Amino acid sequence: MAETAFKAGLEDVVAGTSDICFIDGKEGRLVYRGYNVNDLWDHSSFEEIAYLLWNAKLPTAAELDALRRDLAQHRELPTPVMELLRSLPRDTHPMDVLRTAVSLLGVYDRKEAAAMTAEANRGIAARLTARIPTIIAAFERLRIGREPVAPDASLTAAENFLYMLHGEKPKALHARVLNVALILHADHELNASTFAARVTAATLTDMYSAITSAIGTLKGPLHGGANEQVMLMLQTIGSEDNVEPWVKDALAHKQKIMGFGHRVYKTMDPRAAILRDLSKEVGEDAGELKWYNMLQRVEKVVTEGKPLYPNVDFFSGSVYYQMGIPTDQFTPVFAMSRIAGWTAHVLEQYANNRIIRPRAEYTGPTHLDYVRLERR
User: Fold this and answer.
1) Are residues 189 and 55 in contact, defined by beta-carbon separation less than 8 angstroms?
2) What is the pLDDT along the chain (376 residues), one digit of tens a residue?
């Protein structure tokens, strides 16, 4: 076997080309199709970002309006998918629900899925983006003994999700904050779930299969599940006064503090900086800054004398929690945003495909002599 450069976890190994997303790890910049996310989050909408990721350009007013209408008309779930949600055990993890429901969506869209044309796959991308929020909200309602709320075509993606989740129109602040969170999570280059989607798509299987792979990958606590773990940590700590002794004890016992560090960023994650301010804003609106203050204290203790920085997961959980989103739904909400990026990457993979087949650096023996069974 020819000598190859090996890096555990493929760290900094370039696995392909893409013009969807650029991360400047040294400067702490996140760029979608050439646009810095710092120029997008306070002026754009999630729907506009989805259009940008899928089409490599910002939409005109007419194009954005057409996309919004398209997404709105596809929010309803096929009846068998809603029946599946009703039949699942109420203690099923929401990410398992999402993975299973998305796979079933492919069964009822199999003609388009099998077509494998650019037009058909763009349609699937829009339908998945429209329906994943409905899956999340419907199961949440069902598991607490309430009926799902039908989507409202007059509402934006962020407004409609909170409406379906809580059964009432959301505060303008909450809709705005969720819209920003969806923009910030929409894509992040070749993260684990996106890479999984591209590996799956590279076999030329259908988009539903690729997205099911991505959802399964996102579920892991070292990827999308980290935001849930941060909130659980805060709930375990309990109060601001307990932060310093709890964190110092955890660090002394070599326990990982979730929400810190990033494989690519060598400075502050730009998304974390934005979400930090939103966490404070939502807390002030609720008259409860406990979670924000606890996060600030955790950050101070962890980063003292260490070049560690919070990542996007550190603040996102507190933002969702203060808007009434259950802790175990944080990762599905992540998927609700990242579906825009996942589908953009799958479309890009299809457009210039080569099957992804890396090599492994073999570390075992190579010249063992076979011993027949009767002699062992």
Assistant:
1) no
2) 445 567 776 766 787 899 999 999 888 899 999 999 999 999 999 999 999 999 999 999 999 999 999 999 999 999 999 999 999 999 999 999 999 999 999 999 999 999 999 999 999 999 999 999 999 999 999 999 999 999 999 999 999 999 999 999 999 999 999 999 999 999 999 999 999 999 999 999 999 999 999 999 999 887 888 888 899 999 999 999 999 999 999 989 988 888 887 778 877 889 999 999 999 999 999 999 999 999 999 999 998 867 788 888 889 999 999 999 999 999 999 999 999 999 999 999 999 999 999 888 899 999 999 999 999 9
Q: Check: pTM over 0.85? Answer yes or no.
A: yes
**d(C-alpha 53, C-alpha 48), whole Å:** 9
Say which DSSP state 149 is in: P
Catalytic positions:
262, 313
The full set of domains in the chain, from first to last, is 21-220+326-351 (1.10.580.10), 226-322 (1.10.230.10)
Q: Which residue has the tokens 């199709």?
A: 33
Whether the CB-CB separation of 271 and 338 falls below 8 Å is answered with no
134 class by beta-carbon count within 10 Å (0-12 exposed, 13-18 middle, 19+ buried): buried
